[in-house]
Amino acid sequence: MEHKSTDETIRKKIQLLERQPVKWKKEEVWERIEHNHKPRSAWYYHVAASLALLLSALFTYNNYKHYRHGMHLKISSLQQRLGAFDTNKNQTGINHIDSSCYLSDQGISLNHNKQKLKRQSKKASHKIMFDAPGVIASSDDDTGARSDTLTTVLQEVAIVQPPRQREVKMVIGVILPEDSANRNDTRRATKTSPRFKLKLLKEHHEGVTPLRLQDSEFIIARIK
Amino acid sequence: MLYMRFSDVMFRTALRYVRNNDDAEDIIIIAFSKVFKSIKSFNYSGKGCLEAWIRKIVVNESLMFLRKRYNFSLTESLDISIPEPDLTELGRLEAEDILEMINQLPTGYRTVFNLYVIEGYDHQEISMMLNISEGTSRSQLFKAKAILKKVLIKEGYNYGT
């Protein structure tokens, strides 16, 4: 009982004291409340988060640079192969580097023009799969050596759909819808999937797209 | 204005728990932000209830602040059979002196002392607020009072010993 009264005395004295005016940063604290500022301790977390963000941005940029360098090497290698392809096309039996292809959900099915490949014992056929947006990779369903060069050429090249022309650094080829009236292969015409023609350009056009492409057309290009 | 009327007393209340002006200001920012945010849900039930409501928010914020830095459950619970130390002499001191002595107590003891003696919570409420057992709460209060009595004796206050 005695303790209770002592506690009560202490409580009253302290509570009375706490009602006295006190010197502190009242206005500054009010401004921080008004402006919905976070407490000082939260700033440390902000600084830490900002640093983490900065480090992650640097890491991403470094990775991007590394990726760009890798891509540059791949494209250089591709250009060399393209050159070799042009040089050796007579030996491979492909007089023209035109091929027909089919777009599907899974990618592009590419078939060399039969007439141009009539001397071949096998029909060259490739299925080119999208493995990333705008980038194609190919998987052979034919082991013919003649097909390999073209497959290699098509690997790791971007398919760019207009109007992203400003991003195009070098146009390597073009995929455009095949006019059904000009189709030689009537069996193909009955297919429901649209038919496209792939044309690899002999001369690579730098800077701008050499052709005025429609929305349904694609170009195969080296992108910046 | 709510802030102008209650901020001084609430700042002092927070300061009694955290002992540091910067930390007390941070607590006031959070507490008053909560007050303004949930003022619509406040039900007026008589004189002094608004201050009590704001005080409760400030005390809760102070405890949350302390919980991040201090583990209240570390102090072992004691079976106290001896009578609680008498603080009659403390009650006779000036309020500033009492507050100064309370501020010298370790965090755990000071917090329980503040909650029990100054705010008027019982041990069951304190145990829930600090997530400790009632025994620990009693033990911390006992130890806080024992330390205060020891200091008073050292300062020359007569306890008949």
Automatic annotation (TrEMBL), chain A:
TM segment ranges: 43-64
Q: Do the record's keywords include Transmembrane helix?
A: yes
Ordered alphabetically, the record's keywords are: Membrane, Transmembrane, Transmembrane helix
Name-wise, this protein is Uncharacterized protein
Q: Does the keyword Transmembrane apply?
A: yes
